[in-house]
């Protein structure tokens, strides 16, 4: 497959002036536009790569099939394909929510392609399991998936404010809700099931790529316990807590996210 084919497949957007490539990967029901307030901050020092997961945004939806995408590892293979074709050197991979774990899985398979991981709101397992607290019981997940199946638009209106977590700023909730509404409900439901039933705890210890875990102080989707678990189980990871609320700090508090990425990756502050 050519670079052009891969770029069309994942609706790749390339920006920046060279330097270390940074790949930004979006979460459930979203697309690359969710990085609009973060990615431009790195264009002066890096090559910025934005893309859409298959089935979302402007990706080639003809490439999606339920048979092809049976686990998060299948999306990790897509990330590997994209980086192999588009990037000429190891990348800084910035993944939000489920894409954080997709990046972990990809780095586990192909560590040579990754310089660093930045994991925003990651969860290796959403279901509580003994001492491990993922934030949900199995019945919660079953109810969430059923709500998506029976009334997707109603689900988006109910879940968007909980995910965004900044009720005093309804315009942010509207951005997320609109993103959900642009997504094919069947694809979203399938991807949500893969996400919320996934358990990648056993994959963490073998991923040696340096990683930064960014967690909000109050996140109803990925609690601090999940983020701290990721940071303690990965051999070269560190944890930072943002004193902000919600599951989408790159949307609600982009300046804080930019600063954490810049400091961790050692990237220069652009001249104004």
Automatic annotation (TrEMBL):
SUPFAM superfamilies: alpha/beta-Hydrolases (SSF53474)
Signal peptide span: none
Domain of life: Bacteria
Pfam hit, one: Abhydrolase_6
Family: Belongs to the AB hydrolase superfamily.
PANTHER family documented for this protein: ESTERASE-RELATED
Name the UniProt record assigns to this protein: Sigma factor sigB regulation protein rsbQ
Source organism per UniProt: Pannonibacter phragmitetus
